[in-house]
Amino acid sequence: MARIILLGAPGCGKGTQAKRLEDLLKIPHISTGDMLRQARDEGTELGKKAKEFMDRGELVPDELVIAMVKERLGKEDCKNGFILDGFPRTVAQGEALDKAGVVVDACVDIVVSDEEVVRRISGRRSCPSCHRIYHIEFSPPKEDNRCDACGAQLVQRDDDKEETVRQRLRVYKEKTAPLEEFYRNKGKLVTVDGNGNPDTVFDRIVGVLKDLGYA
Ligand code: AMP
Fold this sequence. Notes:
- The protein is an alpha/beta fold.
- It has helices spanning about 15-25, 30-40, 45-55, 60-75, 90-100, 115-120, 160-175, 180-185, 200-210; strands at about 1-5, 30, 80-85, 105-110, 125, 135, 190-195.
- The longest helix has 15 residues, at about 160-175.
- Bound molecules: adenosine monophosphate (AMP).
- Adenosine monophosphate binds near residues 10 and 60.
């Protein structure tokens, strides 16, 4: 049983690391960003409400996200634990987990510099057709700006544009960084250096989880 929160600025590698942890620990990876993007793309009521905030790099209102996460955590596959990626994002969301009786075993804070975040995110490109993700520097497509798998023209997500990334970093510092203190006070915070390649960072995360007895 491991109930893990991955904390860290956008672009710190939470999503990548959460997927790897999901494979290793056999517990579901729950990404509120992915859930909200899906709702937005499907044009659901929630998606319509979330879109304007997401496109501006701002947080979607707490009550919408909290309701969505509570429903997800109530599903059968979360019985043996979960990896939360992108939630909680505000102290109010952390408190909502407490109120709902959701126990957190560890909050892993992945730390990277602002400049590294901008480099990582603003270089991201994705395929609008088959949703493959590329990076102009770290994993470029074979042919300039075309998807290797289906040939579609790659696009940059609106919220990955440099200006929006900087806005997301400001929002992170103001609204999300206080959660470090919140989980430190509960004795649940562990800090991991997020610089370096994904394999190195993964080894560090697994190392701290092993020390805690969760991996
Ligand atoms: P992410 O992929 O985690 O960076 O999330 C993309 C966008 O979805 C964020 O910039 C927010 O607009 C929204 N979002 C994701 N998770 C949350 C959350 N826990 N609370 C509020 N907004 C969120």
